[in-house]
Amino acid sequence: MNIDRNQIAEHNKRLEHTQQRRFAQLAEDMPNIDGVVQKLVSFQVAIPSWALGTGGTRFGRFSGGGEPGNLEEKIADIGLLHALNQSSGAISLHIPWDIPKDYAAIRTLAEQHGLAFDAMNSNTFQDQQGQTHSYKFGSMQHVDRAVRKQAIDHNIEVIKHGIELGSKSLTVWLADGSSFPGQLNFRRAFQNTLESLQEVYAALPADWKIFVEYKAFEPNFYSTTVGDWGQSLLYASKLGDKAYTLVDLGHHLPNANIEQIVALLLMEGKLGGFHFNDSKYGDDDLTTGSIKPYQLFLIFSELIEGMDNRGMEHAKDLGWMIDASHNLKDPLEDLLQSVEAILIAYAQALLIDRNALNEAQATNDVARAQEVLQQAFRTDVRPLVAEARLRAGAALNPVQLYRELDVRGRLVKERGEKTVATGL
Ligand code: AOS
Ligand code: ZN
Ligand code: ZN
Ligand code: ZN
After folding, report:
1. Mean pLDDT by 10-residue block, N- to C-terminus, for the chain (424 residues)?
2. Contact predicate 47/81, CB 8 Å
3. Which residues have C-beta under 5 Å from ligand 3, the single-atom ion?
4. Which residues are near ligand 1 (CB < 6 Å)?
5. Which 3 state secondary structure label does DSSP give 32?
6. Structure pTM?
7. Using CA atoms, how far apart are residues 171 and 184, in angstroms rounded to an integer?
8. Which ligand 1 atom is the nearest neighbour of the CA of 423?
9. Residue 284: nearest ligand to its CA?
């Protein structure tokens, strides 16, 4: 199914009056409101191919209907999201789940939906059918050179798929680590991983980046070989200029100060991108902004301080994507909510009075600094974000239109009641 301009225009017409009133009210207090709206219009966040189906937990999976069964249908789903919000103009693929059969056809299809190919993802955390060596005891860290070689070759193959599609980056998330003390020699595991990554790095085209994602735990529960941002930064620094750290919001030990990590990675020129999601306990992969919206806002505040104010561009200098998994909600509704939450946090952070904050910091006026931040955070910026959508030709209320058009019902009719999306 497709969503056309007329359906969007008709929906917007019905909501436009209220929108105008709310936007005008905000505009009264904001001299540079059009500049802010323009930044929101250009903001794009990539959707991972594996977030379009019901993820389940290790205890079970309650499958939903109408889920995409192949890469073409995944692109179509993200096309629907992008038509609704004009902010999801990219897809992130996972190999081997999304191996294209016909590159040209896939590129054309993505183009028709206005989608670019964001970071490619490799998979050495599962054994695939017909694979020679098992990753049970790790991949790039493995004690056996033959296993490491297999993991390296796989990543190089992923780069090749990406080149054909026009992607410009590779994200490596390693499940490698250990579950019991004594299982690993930490230094050897690090060295093996580094050498493996170096071989992959050598295969990167000149205009590509490699993102090294870190994660504190799971599936290994005693040590992780890329366990935190320090270790990731160590790998990225040793690898070279094309290597960066990737921050997944759910991959820290509880209560980590993620905004500070972001600030320092930016300072070092080593922040590569984000996996947006939210969590209360661990790598919960919940809808972005559903648990800790203030943290998300503070992260964006650091991003603006470290990027916008220094001439960096979000679209070109960072890889942004959602990494979430849905057990209860319709995955497409959930992704619309995540994108909305990201835009809200960005908009709020753009409203921070930077001069006042700088002044408060310079004079140790702690109370004032808090006032400045919370003034922005407590502004209801939803009319701003909606205005950006209106100007971009998207729906004023994407979730509402999604329901009005009964998108899920129509996908179920097309694809069936019991579907399993390939992926997690
Ligand atoms: C795993 O926890 C990481 O978040 C990965 O980035 C991602 O979820 C995985 O690559 C998807 O298969
Ligand atoms: Zn991730
Ligand atoms: Zn994760
Ligand atoms: Zn996650």
Report:
1. 95 98 95 94 95 85 89 98 98 96 98 97 97 98 98 98 98 98 98 99 98 98 98 98 98 97 95 96 96 98 85 76 91 98 97 97 98 98 98 98 98 88 63
2. yes
3. 283
4. 50, 94, 121, 173, 213, 215, 248, 275, 283, 323, 424
5. coil
6. 0.97
7. 24
8. 12
9. 4
